């Protein structure tokens, strides 16, 4: 992790994008993909658990890449807000992914340029 920080923002950004792509696509699964959207969930409890689980997994990925629990927590909150917006059809898949990648870019810049130290 610290090795990525030493390599600079581009290496960090690449690692964040890779972990995001893995977690958001092949590792998500059909069940969570469906149940994390309130309008498709079997019931409100399933919706909350599925959305939370999905966001916790993303937060773990950011934590692993950055070595920062604080950035992991930020990802938990931001990912939940973005996915809530998509789930409520406030925007579509492209905007959803651009917002997620923008978060990863912000993490990479803050850590890679040592604006925030871990």
Q: How would you describe the overall organization of this protein?
A:
With 118 residues, the protein is an all-alpha fold. It has one domain (2-112). Helices cover 77% and strands 0% of the residues. It is built from six helices and no strands. Helix 2 (9-24) packs antiparallel against helix 6 (93-112) and helix 4 (44-66) packs antiparallel against helix 5. It is elongated. The mean pLDDT is 96.
Question: Mean pLDDT, nearest integer?
Answer: 96
What profile does the largest beta sheet have? none
Count of separate DSSP helical elements: 6
The global form is elongated
Calculate Rg over CA atoms. Answer: 14 Å
H-E string: HHHHHH
Uncertain segments are none
How many angstroms does the end-to-end distance come to?
A: 11 Å
Overall helicity: over 70%
Secondary-structure-derived class: mainly alpha
Number of strands: 0
Summarize the structure.
The chain is an all-alpha fold and 118 residues long. It has one domain (2-112). The protein has helices at residues 2-7, 9-24, 29-35, 44-66, 69-87, 93-112.
List the helices and strands and how they pair.
Blueprint lengths: L1 H6 L1 H16 L4 H7 L8 H23 L2 H19 L5 H20 L6
Descriptive key words:
118 residues, mainly alpha, 6 helices
